[in-house]
Design brief:
Blueprint: E1 29-30, E2 45-48, E3 60-66, E4 70-73, E5 76-79, E6 83-88
Parallel strand pairs: 1-2
Antiparallel strand pairs: 2-6, 3-6, 4-5
Length: about 90
C-alpha cells in the first residue's frame, strides 16, 4: 500500500524573491534547500534530490533530472549539485 506524505508547505512566498536561474535550464528557478521551496510558485524548479524524502504524488510532478545544472554567481558560471526538475501541482 502506498504511503501518502503530508503536503510540503513552508509558508514561504515567491513574491519579492529573486531566485537564481540556470544557464542550461532556462525555465526553472534554483532552490538550494527544501525549506526554501515557495508555496505559491507553480513553475519548474530545480530542487535537491532530498525532495524524495517528502515526495507526495498528489502535490508534485516530476519533469526531469537536471544533469550538470549551471548557474552564474558573482559573474562566474558554476556547475552545482545534481537537481531534480519538478513542478508543484495546482491543487484546489
Amino acid at each position: 500500500m502506498p504511503v501518502t506524505k503530508p503536503s510540503l508547505r513552508n509558508g514561504i512566498s515567491c513574491k519579492g524573491m529573486n531566485y537564481e536561474t540556470y544557464t542550461n535550464y532556462k525555465d526553472a528557478i534554483n532552490i538550494n534547500r527544501i525549506k526554501d521551496i515557495p508555496d505559491d510558485y507553480y513553475g519548474p524548479m530545480g530542487v535537491p534530490v532530498t525532495i524524495m524524502d517528502y515526495w507526495n504524488d498528489n502535490e508534485w510532478e516530476f519533469l526531469q533530472p537536471m544533469v550538470k545544472p549551471r548557474i552564474i554567481r558573482n559573474g562566474v558560471e558554476s556547475i552545482i549539485y545534481y537537481r531534480l526538475k519538478v513542478k508543484r501541482k495546482n491543487l484546489p
